[in-house]
Amino acid sequence: MPVLQPIVNIAELLYQKGITDVVVAPGSRSAPLTLAVARHPHLRVRVVADERSAGFIALGMAQQSQNPVALICTSGSAVYNLAPAVVEAYFQQVPLLLLTADRPHEWLHQQDGQTIDQATIFGTHVKRSYDLPADYSHPDARWFIERSVNEAINLCRLPAPGPVHINVPLREPFYPTAEESFRAERVRVLDTLPAQPTLSTDTWHKLLNEWDQSERTLLAVGQIPYDPALLAILRKISEELGVPVVGEITASMAHNDQFITHTDTFLAGIDATNAEALRPDLLITLGNSFLTRNLKTYFRQYPARRHWHIHPTVDRINDSFQSLTTLVPSEPRPFLDKLFADLDYQRFLQGDDADQNDTFLNRWQTADRQAAKLVRQTVSGTDRRLTDWSAVQQVLDHLPAQSVLHLANSMPVRYANLCGIDEQQHIQVWANRGVSGIDGCLSTAVGTALLTDQIVTLVVGDVAFFYDRNALWSNPVPPNLRIVLLNNDGGHIFRIIDGPSRQPELERYFETPHGYTARNTAEDARLDYQVCTSLETIQTLLPDFFTRSERAKLLEVTTDKYVNQEQFAAYKAQCRQVFQ
């Protein structure tokens, strides 16, 4: 058996367990892993030189495929550069399999290059860490490696999905000679079947009784992958049971005549009388994090008497609104399907279909419609100056149907949430709201574009774009990628937030003006590049911008930060006037 045969076999095991995509950040110590996947006939391997960017590209690929993506890098500081993507994957529950090459552990603290303590480097931000042996002479070592890789891949997928780390110490020689075989042996596949939690009859009746005892019930949806079937059952519950369904753009909640999507506007500074009128008796939440502070603050200040959170795993209690009473161990869609079926049958038996009281639903929907009108007046009024906000509204209005939208953190995701998208567009929406950093937003969108033929649009601010432009280093950039860069020459969000906006140090220490444009970056990456400075120009450019082409496209929208600030201040003043 060749010395590195157990490492070569890892590539075959990836394939046998359904992993088809691998991202490699080049290095020498990781050569055996790289050669194993590169020479495997059924693995798609993409090379990304920057480890931080590689991590986020793998994240975007895994988001889109909902399947683990393997990520390989060399030893030392390279491993630490994966950390931002790892923590985002952990809190967003995205499956990544991290394969990090390492020196044999006896060389730690011996002044050997690229040698750090990396066996548990990601700490509690991975589901589990595995440390493989560096010597394979005993059969038990080879058995341990095969068992560990099987277990790690299974763990990536099991609820809740997430990143898993395999540290791989490797001895020289790394590279096979021309005479040596570098082919995988037959591997043993070990599967772990996912458990399906089933609520007992008594428990289910207890939940139904709590529903019956609650005159005002509300459903709130946090960040969750786009699922038309889930949206359909949510709409049915709202229409037929009179339940307000609240969501944000990060839950792919689109504008329609039923869902409530403008809470950030009408809950801003809401007075006590109106707040009490909107308070539910029973709050049901599902999904991950919520985007807007106003929504979170409202439910903390006006907690429901009962609060169910639906989530497939119960190892941690998620009590974000500080009102949780019951954690329901279930996937959201099956739970809601059964809940609606049982409640609908119960109503049929009781003959009270026509007696539904929609007063509570109407209160939420009326406030939402007022808020939608206010937002439209803000961005489509008589002021025809181009702003970040009006640019985002134009982009969302022109998005191709059934395309993918990525929203960078800071102001782009907030502007998009205020604007919203139309239900008829059927848009998948993604945003890195696990830890909400600006690092990796561009790389994540690139990763998504690699795994879909649909147009993928990224709306990104200038600081996040320039921070992550190594995402465009590894050519070719997928031609279905569309980048809308909002360039206001600094961190615009600090001019919007009350605290820093009042400080004399705002511009130098918070906004950090830079004077850069994306022209040279676009030229280096071979992107089609256009720039606009007026509302009329962006309206003219967008239809062609979204047409298919042989190269990715970048549209740089140049705005004045003072005009942006003026528009947002006027909007907040209107909110106080209308909703207080």
TrEMBL record:
CDD domains per UniProt: TPP_PYR_MenD (cd07037), TPP_SHCHC_synthase (cd02009)
Catalytic activity annotation: isochorismate + 2-oxoglutarate + H(+) = 5-enolpyruvoyl-6-hydroxy-2-succinyl-cyclohex-3-ene-1-carboxylate + CO2
Gene3D superfamilies per record: 3.40.50.970, TPP-binding domain
Class of this enzyme: transferase
Cofactor info, note text: Binds 1 thiamine pyrophosphate per subunit.
Domain Thiamine pyrophosphate enzyme N-terminal TPP-binding intervals: 10-120
Name of protein: 2-succinyl-5-enolpyruvyl-6-hydroxy-3-cyclohexene-1-carboxylate synthase
